[in-house]
């Protein structure tokens, strides 16, 4: 008998965007409120896992056509790169800088290089989680 | 501030990351990792001379002042070990180029190799006890993967044991750090030393000290905590055994060195006496294992345990001479163990078996391999012109000075048995009639890394005049923790 996933798939299509938006919110909140790269990355991964549950591995691979292992490397490059960046300013490794900028769409914004480091953490967490789930899921 | 201090761990880390991107192209992987290994050795060499001439180099990560931020400290002991690590790793890397099958190479062998070096160098350089834990984990997680990579039955079984033991010891490590933090309220090693000196190490701190000895004993294979080592070190391919035997247990020993010379040195009659006794039992039991086995890999693996016993005894004796001896022996042991594991790997590749009873007469076809093994065996035991001699001589001298006559006796007997166990391989494997059914040609590439390590080992013996000043100064600064504390906490 062929099962019918219409309800699950329809709900997923709506929910995934809510979850992704929430993960991005949590990611940016990390500097002043609970949140950050690690939990943000896990929530993003959760959204993609929901996609995998509602559809199947092949469809999700078509939607997100990345090799997650390469994304781990990219995330690590972000994290290490922010550390190495301080070399060029004659500062100790991993020194971070921050300042206030006037962005035209957000107004006065506090930007810190710690955010770049966090993007690295975020990418690594998403990619590691999905690598684990995908590898186990495709294993036969 | 000296940003060079971070390079010994940054270079392998970046290399490892880049290698992930090229996992399908083995040629590019080999070129990149070979190139970075050469750079690493030269940077470390430069750093060693800088530390020797200008004193301890430190780097406050992120520019935060020491007790609050993490600090990397390159003192002579750390930088000597980092340099030896990079030298050993370059030899193992070139051995891997010639001995590994393509499946392993494509499945991220080289990235994890680099991450292992990152963890080891980081553990040597850090000045923060929790950061030490983190680098332990970087090193261990890479080692979990290297031990299981390939997925043969033996590897799977032994890696389960290895991972279980190491997870338990890591949990103990975190617990020990938690106790120490609850008592002292700091994690920086120099600051810990100051605070413990202020309150005069009470019974509670002695208990924590022994807790740390248990943790590092588990990592470094000290009696009665070495039960996991023989099986798991014999399972993976020769290159991996070589890195493990040369680097992993030595990180445990280095941590004992660091914590018991810088932090817990106030009640040597408890902690250091315990180390002397455990060291003596470790060397004896290790060599008994080596003598009793007929598997070439097992014989070398048990010799790793014996060396741990020697060095821990040196730390326990608590004098400048025995410290110098322990450091010298540590440097010698890292190179010679790697060389022996690689030579054994070549021998197994040639003979097609690791059982001594099934091979003989290998030297007739492979004289270079045979005589190189012979030299390495003599160096391991400590025959005078070679590197093992000076370390062992200093250890014995230090032992007699501090009145541990019976341990010195155990050490000499052990050395004799080590000679017996290693000559057993030479006499049964290399000598004798040619009965080995299958003798393949040695790929010459396998011999160059071994020759390189042997040359270093002979250099450590003949060039003692040049190496000894570095070792002596490292030992002297370990005997006086004030030097380390000043370098970290001043300004």
Give a brief outline of the structure.
Chain A has helices spanning 6-29, 37-54, 57-63, 68-85, 114-138, and strands at 98-103, 107-112.
Describe the structure.
The complex is a heterodimer of chains A (about 140) and B (about 500). Chain A has helices at about 5-30, 35-55, 55-65, 70-85, 115-140, and strands spanning about 100-105, 105-110. Chain A is mostly helical and about 140 residues long. In chain A, strands 1-2 form a two-stranded antiparallel sheet. In chain A, strand 1 and strand 2 (about 105-110) form a beta hairpin. Chain B has helices at about 5-20, 25-55, 75-100, 100-105, 110-125, 130-150, 155-185, 190-200, 205-220, 230-235, 240-265, 270-290, 295-315, 320-350, 360-365, 365-380, 385-400, 405-430, 445-460, 465-480, 480-490, and strands spanning about 55-60, 70-75. Chain B is about 80% helix and about 0% strand. Chain B starts with 6 loop residues before the first helix and ends with a helix. A two-stranded antiparallel sheet of chain B has the order 1-2. By secondary structure, chain B is an all-alpha fold. The interface of A and B includes residues 70, 80, 93, 94 and 95 of A.
């Amino acid at each position: 008998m062929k099962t019918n996933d219409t309800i699950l798939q329809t709900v997923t299509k709506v929910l995934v965007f809510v979850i992704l938006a929430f993960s991005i919110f949590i990611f940016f909140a990390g500097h002043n409120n609970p949140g950050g790269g690690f939990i943000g990355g896990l929530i993003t991964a959760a959204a993609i896992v929901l996609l995998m549950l509602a559809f199947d591995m092949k469809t999700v691979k078509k939607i997100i056509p990345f090799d997650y292992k390469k994304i781990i490397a990219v995330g690590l490059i972000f994290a290490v790169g922010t550390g190495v960046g301080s070399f060029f300013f004659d500062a100790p490794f991993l020194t971070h800088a921050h300042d206030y900028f006037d962005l035209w769409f957000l107004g006065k914004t506090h930007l810190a290089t710690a955010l770049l480091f966090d993007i690295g953490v975020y990418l690594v967490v998403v990619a590691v989680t999905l690598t684990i789930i995908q590898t186990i899921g495709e294993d036969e | 501030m000296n940003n060079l201090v971070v390079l010994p761990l940054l270079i392998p880390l970046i290399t490892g990351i880049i290698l992930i991107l090229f996992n399908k192209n083995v040629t590019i992987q080999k070129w990149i990792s070979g190139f970075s290994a050469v750079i690493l050795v030269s940077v470390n060499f430069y750093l060693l001379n800088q530390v020797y001439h200008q004193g301890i180099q430190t780097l406050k990560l992120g520019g935060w002042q020491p007790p609050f931020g993490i600090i990397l400290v390159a003192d002579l002991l750390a930088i000597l070990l980092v340099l030896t690590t990079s030298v050993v790793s370059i030899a193992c890397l070139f051995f891997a180029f010639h001995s590994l099958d393509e499946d392993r190479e494509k499945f991220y062998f080289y990235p994890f190799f680099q991450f292992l070096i990152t963890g080891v160098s980081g553990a040597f350089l850090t000045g923060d006890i929790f950061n030490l834990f983190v680098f332990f984990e970087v090193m261990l997680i890479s080692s979990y993967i290297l031990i299981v990579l390939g997925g043969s039955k033996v590897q799977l079984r032994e890696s389960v044991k290895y991972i279980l033991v190491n997870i338990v010891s890591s949990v103990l490590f975190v617990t020990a750090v938690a106790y120490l933090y609850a008592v002292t309220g700091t994690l920086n090693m120099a600051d810990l030393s100051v605070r413990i000196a202020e309150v005069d190490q009470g019974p509670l701190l002695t208990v924590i000290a022994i807790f740390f000895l248990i943790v590092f004993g588990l990592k470094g294979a000290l009696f009665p905590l070495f039960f996991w080592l023989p099986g798991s070190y014999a399972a993976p391919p020769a290159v991996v055994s070589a890195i493990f035997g040369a680097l992993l247990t030595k990180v445990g020993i280095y941590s004992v060195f660091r914590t018991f010379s810088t932090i817990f040195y106030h009640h040597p009659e408890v902690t250091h006496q315990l180390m002397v006794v455990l060291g003596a039992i470790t060397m004896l039991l290790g060599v008994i294992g080596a003598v009793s086995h007929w598997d070439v890999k097992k014989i070398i693996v048990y010799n790793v345990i014996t060396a741990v016993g020697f060095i821990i005894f040196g730390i326990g004796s608590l004098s400048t001479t025995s410290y110098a001896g322990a450091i010298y022996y540590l440097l010698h042991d890292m190179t010679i163990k790697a060389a022996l594991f690689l030579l054994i790997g070549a021998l197994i590749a040639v003979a097609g078996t690791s059982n001594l009873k099934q091979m003989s007469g290998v030297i007739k076809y492979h004289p270079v391999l045979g005589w190189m093994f012979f030299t390495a065996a003599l160096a391991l035991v400590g025959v005078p012109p070679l590197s093992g001699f000076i370390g062992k001589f200093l250890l014995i001298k230090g032992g007699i000075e501090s009145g541990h006559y019976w341990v010195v006796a155990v050490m000499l007997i052990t050395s004799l048995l080590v000679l017996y166990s290693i000559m057993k391989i030479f006499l049964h494997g290399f000598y004798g009639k040619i009965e080995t059914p299958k003798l393949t040609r040695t790929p010459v590439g396998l011999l160059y890394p071994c020759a390189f390590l042997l040359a270093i080992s002979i250099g450590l013996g003949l060039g003692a005049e040049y190496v000894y000043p570095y070792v002596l100064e490292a030992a002297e600064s370990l005997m006086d923790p004030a030097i380390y504390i000043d370098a970290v906490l001043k300004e």
